[in-house]
Amino acid sequence: MLVIGLTGGIATGKSTVSNLLKERHVPVIDADVLARQVVEPGTSGLAKIVKTFGDNVLLPNGTLNRKALGAIIFKDEQKRKRLNAIVHPAVRRAMFWGVIKCWLAGHRVCVLDIPLLIEGPLWKLVYKVVLVYCPPDIQLQRLMLRDNSNKDDALSRLNSQIPIDDKLKYSDDRIDNAGGIEELKAKVDEFVETLKKEAGWTWVLSWLIPPYGVASAACVLAWRAIWRSSKLKRKTS
User: Fold this and answer.
1) Could you count the other beta carbons within 10 Å of the beta carbon of residue 154?
2) CA geometry: angle at 85 spanning 80 and 90, to 5°?
3) Which of 41, 36, 73, 79 is nearest to 58 (CA)?
4) Whole-angstrom Cα distance, residue 116 to residue 123?
5) pTM of the model
6) What is the pLDDT of residues 91-113, one digit of tens each?
């Protein structure tokens, strides 16, 4: 089974691509959804957050008060790191089990939808990094229109992320979203067909013989790690 990492930048259309993949029956494991699930009432994640930041981060119904928590961590990098140390490992474990479930279900491909795929270490652990891309000027226009914000505010949000053109250096493939929705749908269709061809039928053998699947995945990741390192050196030189 191919594990694909899908990422993008703010207002590039990653969520739209993710939804289009789901419509085409491609299993998508959404990191943002999991980040909410791992802090639901009754989870160890929420218990750790309350222990770390106090009961005032809870609403009367026992759910997480995200506004109160945000006020605590917004201007305190150390507290933000403490929160990330709780949430990120829980999300990664949930993603791992999501991949296992996709494999057990016999899927050829699964997609990990991770906004900060490149900023974190997970981009090194997927078969292919796919970037939803649009030029920076279009990205800025879309962000201003979407949030009804002025240029300075939109630029401030964009500058808080790795520039979309810099993310191209890490990507193995890209889905260009500079056009309209119909054009994007056609590109997603083409992308899905490409993935099916790349998966081939070896996924059946991996599914029937788990040790073969594990060994095959390890070899592919090792080879692609070497290839990516070489590619990055060429692009930065």
Assistant:
1) 21
2) 125
3) 41
4) 9
5) 0.82
6) 999 999 999 898 888 888 999 99
76 contacts: CB under 8 Å, gap ≥ 6: none
Compute the mean pLDDT over every residue in the chain, rounded to the nearest whole number.
86
pLDDT tens string 152-173: 989 988 888 899 999 998 898 9
Amino acid making up residue 210: P
CB count within 10 Å of CB 45 equals: 20
pLDDT band at 179 (very low <50, low <70, confident <90, very high): very high
Closest alpha carbon to 39 in 73, 72, 64: 64
Q: Across the chain, how many H-helices and E-strands are there?
A: 11, 5
The pLDDT of residue 98 is 93
**154: which 2 tokens?**
């939109």
- CA–CA separation, 16 vs 21, rounded Å? 9
The whole-number average pLDDT for the span 82-97 is 93
SS3 helix, strand, coil % of the chain, rounded to 5? 65, 10, 25
Structural domains of the chain sorted by starting position, each given as residue range(s) with its CATH number in brackets? 1-27+108-237 (3.40.50.300), 35-106 (3.40.50.300)
Positive or negative, the CA dihedral 118, 232, 177, 25 is: negative
Question: Which of 52-61, 103-112, 136-145, 206-215 has the lowest average pLDDT?
Answer: 206-215
